Amino acid sequence: MSSQESPDGLDVEALALAVERFTGIFIRLASVEKMGFTTLGVLHTLAGRGPLRLSELTASEQVTQPAITQLVTRLERDGLVRRRPDPTDGRAVLVHLTPEGAQVVDRRRRDRIDRLSALTRHLNTSQRQAIAAALPALSEMAALGTRFLDEPPS
């Protein structure tokens, strides 16, 4: 048993390597809406989490406050996001995804699904079934990761 293997046989080190390799391919699958990773990260974050403060975007995208302010200003100029007052705190603003910004995310997702579909056709039936069986666990890990992102590993 490796130092990162759990008693039930899950090799966390192998999982990390597989996810790293897959992520490296996955984030590059979309051929439409070519933008920088941080720009796309902000759009996808807003699409998934809803309106956020600049400080929340700074934390989620792991960039500096000046960098996120500059990026949001550019996205706002391009009509992809809009700033609005935070109804719970008049001193703060929330960054909202516009319908145009949502279209960017949707086009990339559709393109990525098409390309991923083409890749999965090269897998055998048992490999596709294994991925299908893993989807609930992967979805739960993503949800846990979102909740516990800023906590140190235990």
Describe what you observe in this structure:
By secondary structure, this protein is mostly helical. It is built from 6 helices and 2 strands; from the N terminus they run ααααββαα. Strands 1-2 form a two-stranded antiparallel sheet. Helix 2 (37-49) crosses helix 5 (99-120) and helix 3 packs across helix 4 (65-77). The mean pLDDT is 89.
Secondary structure blueprint with pairings:
Elements: H1 12-26, H2 37-49, H3 54-61, H4 65-77, E1 81-86, E2 89-97, H5 99-120, H6 125-148
Antiparallel strand pairs: 1-2
Helix pairs in contact: 2-5, 3-4
Give keywords.
single chain; 154 residues; mainly alpha; two-stranded antiparallel ribbon; 6 helices; 2 strands; globular
H/I helix tally: 6
Series of secondary-structure elements, N-terminal to C-terminal: HHHHEEHH
Overall 3D form: globular
Biggest β-sheet strands, sense, barrel: 2 strands, antiparallel
Low-confidence regions: none
Radius of gyration: 18 Å
* Largest beta sheet: strand ordering: 1-2
State the end-to-end CA separation: 19 Å
Mean pLDDT metric = 89
Overall strand count: 2
- The helix-and-strand class reads mainly alpha
* Helix percentage: 55-70%
Proportion of residues in β-strands: 5-15%
